[in-house]
Amino acid sequence: MENENIYEDFSDIVPEKSSTIKNTTCCYGCSPHINKLHTYDWLHDYPEMQAATKMVEVQFKNTRKGYYINSNNIDLKIGDIVAVEATPGHDIGTVSLTGKLVELQMKKNNFREENNGGLKRVYRIARPTDLEKYNQAKAREYPTMIRSRQIAEELGLQMKIGDVEYQGDGSKAIFYYIADERVDFRQLIKVLASEFKVKIEMKQIGARQEAGRIGGIGPCGRELCCSCWMTNFVSVSTSCARCQDLSINPQKLAGQCGKLKCCLNYEIDAYVEAQKNLPSYEIVLQTKDADYYHVKTDIFQGLLTYSTDKYNPVHLVTISKDRVFEVINMNKKGEKPLKLEPDIEENVQNEALYMNDLLNDQNIDRFDDKISSSSVKKKKKKKKRKQNKKSAKTNTENSSDNPDKNE
Question: For the chain, which domains are there?
Fold first, then answer.
C-alpha cells in the first residue's frame, strides 16, 4: 500500500506509470500514449528485438528525455520509475521506450555521446526513499520559480523564467526562461546559487515551446497542436499567408504565443501545387469593352475574379482559369474578345453536363419541387371544398326563406 501511494503522488509527472496502473486493458504497444512524447513500440511483439540493445529512453519533466545504458541488466519495462546517473548525483525519470527502437530514436534526435558527456547508466528501479527525496525537491519548484522571477526583476534582466525543474536528488535545478534578446545572466546564476544552495543550469526555450508547455485551446476550438502532438517547431513566414491568399492581419495570423500560427504550414504544399496550374496574376486581360485586372483567386476551384479598375473592385467578373488562358492566348495574337465572360451557349452546355451528373441526381433536393407542387394542389382542393360548402349553405338558406318558390 505504501508503494501505491508513492506512485500516486508521482503520477503527475509520470503519466505512463499512472496509466498502466489505472488502465490494464490496453495492449503493450499503445497503453502509455497519452502525451505528445509517446513513441509507438511497433517491435514489442519481437522478444529478440527487446534484448538487442541495452539502451533505454527515459523521460523527465516537460519535454526532457535522455538515453541511458542498462549496464546492470535490470528487467525494465515501459512505465518503470528508475534512478539514473546525473552530474552531479542521480535523477529520477520514467522509462518511455526499450529495445531496438531506442537506437532509431537516438539517430532521429542526433544523440551523440561526446555532446552529452558520454553514456550514463541506469542505477536501479527507484526505491521509496528515492521517490520521497524527489517529492521533496518537486515541492520546492514553484516557490523557487516565484523567487527567481523577483531576483531577475531586481537585477533588471529582460527575461521571463517560465519553469523550474529540480533533479531527483535535489542537488541541481534547471531554470527554463524566455528572452527576446541575449541576456547576461552570470550575476543571476551567482545570486541563485547562493539563494537556493544548488547547482544552477539555465536553459532558454522559445515562445512556441512555452505555449506548448502551458497548453490551451486554439481558435479552431481544439487543443493547441504544440501541446498535444507537435515536438519539432518549424519557422513560419508571412509568405505562407500570401501564398494562401490570406489577409496579412497579425491579430488573426498570430497564435497564443504571439508568433505566426504553426497551422499555416499544414496546407502550404497543396496551395503551391495548385498554383502551378494558374495564370500569372500580373497579366492584364484586354477586351473590346475594357481592360481587366486581377483581384482575387479561388485556388482550388480554379476561379479568378477581375475588375475594370486596377485599385478598386469595380464591375467584378469571375471566370474559370481555362477562360483566362483562352483570353491570354487571344491577346498574344492581337485579338480581343467582345467580353470577358464566355458565350451563353457554353454555359448552357456546362449546365446540361452538370445535370447529368450522377452525384447531382442523387441529391435529396430534387424532391423539393415535387413536394411544393403537390402541396399547392392540396391547398387548391381545400379552397374548392370550402367554396362548395359555402355555396351549399347559401342555397339551403334561400330555399327556407322562400317556400313558395319551392312549391
Answer: 2-127 (no CATH), 140-205 (3.30.300.20), 210-274 (no CATH), 285-347 (no CATH)
